[in-house]
């Protein structure tokens, strides 16, 4: 269940996948910026950065190379580097809003909302296309409401807390408390950004609202999403105070998720503040402080079968990593554990290129983040994400894949719940890896 965006169609050629680092590092001519941009569009961020760096070294006044280096640092979650590079880009072109928005996101991920707000000074976030398409959680009124407070302030003892799944048959569901209220039921979904509250529930618990944006969901459906805040969320033994939230209708997915009532969702931005594990074999969400010694389940098993997949963060929460569909060239895939009832969802262009057959005679109606939609199943005979490989993976087609070209590079699709639910899946945002261990 993911939010936003608008498309920026860009042609990507598979020949770039074989471009060598030696060749990339030799490009410093004016044509080098075009090469670097094509590498970036193909998702070859390391190779692109080498070309941009050579250009910026030869010409420190080159704005395009500098801002792209800042963009890649932000994708890599190297926040201090991103801040330095984006501030340098702003010094070169003070009136350009793109580096201001990305600089705000770099501060936002550090929970430095004061500096995030300063970076957005003078920008109308309701009309700025980069905010709308990639960083809709950057709402200036919401950010200003945290003045003098620390967002995501954790209270509680111990280094680790655990939340048993109420169910994980469709998606993992846990109980939490909002604003010290009664226990309520939330599902977990990395396709979501902030903690999400159901619209009616948010009013019931007195959440504050700061303005709506248009959210884009599966199949290209849209609905209104409010930016807001709550006093706290209690997860296991810990209470996280000063909580940014988004608000949208969620109770409509209660029955499909197999519970009496869904009141909200835990998204990537809460998990980001911990070493977080969706431990499907042991039926629990495990949250560890980032400063803690890794618990047993985070360390390699005696069989040595743990797999680490490098990731980047696009926009305000999209975890993306390299995978492969059938035998076509590798491509970037979005990790959406909230994709229910399937292991993969692909862009139509990728379905056609991989010669995947849609089973239209098995089409069904289902619930999405913005209402009902028609889903058509298909099977991917060979699918990999990093070194994780699976065969005969069920896929779902429900219309356009809205994030295919949103971020300036190509996304082939997403890997979902059914791909990951056999593993213990740890999201390590310090080292920018997803660690998957078998039972």
Task: Tell me roughly what share of residues is in helical segments.
Answer: 10-25%
Q: Extract low-pLDDT stretches.
A: 1-28
Sheet with most strands = 8 strands, mixed
Q: Roughly how many Å apart are the termini?
A: 27 Å
> How many strand units?
22
CATH topology of the largest domain: Cathepsin D, subunit A, domain 1
CATH class of the largest domain: Mainly Beta
Quickly count the domains. Answer: 3
Q: Structural class of the helices, strands and pairings?
A: alpha+beta
The name of the CATH superfamily of the largest domain reads Acid Proteases
**What does the average pLDDT come to?**
89
Q: How much beta, percentage-wise?
A: 25-35%
Anisotropy-based shape:
globular
Radius of gyration: 21 Å
Question: How would you explain this protein's 3D organization?
Answer:
There is one protein chain. With 439 residues, the chain is α+β, with helices and mostly antiparallel strands. The protein has three domains: 14-122, Serine Threonine Protein Phosphatase 5, Tetratricopeptide repeat (Alpha Horseshoe); 153-295, Cathepsin D, subunit A, domain 1 (Beta Barrel); 307-437, Cathepsin D, subunit A, domain 1. The chain is 25% helix and 32% strand. It has 13 helices and 22 strands. The chain has helices spanning 21-25, 31-41, 45-58, 63-75, 79-92, 97-109, 113-119, 129-134, 140-144, 199-204, 268-271, 348-353, 417-420; strands at 153-155, 160-164, 173-178, 183-188, 195-198, 208-216, 222-235, 238-248, 264-266, 275-279, 284-288, 307-310, 312-314, 318-325, 331-335, 344-346, 364-368, 371-385, 388-397, 411-415, 424-428, 433-437. Strands 13, 14, 15, 16, 17, 18, 19 and 20 form an eight-stranded mixed sheet that branches. Strand 7 and strand 8 (238-248) form a beta hairpin. Helix 4 (63-75) packs antiparallel against helix 5 and helix 4 (63-75) runs parallel beside helix 6 (97-109). The model is unreliable at 1-28 (pLDDT under 50).
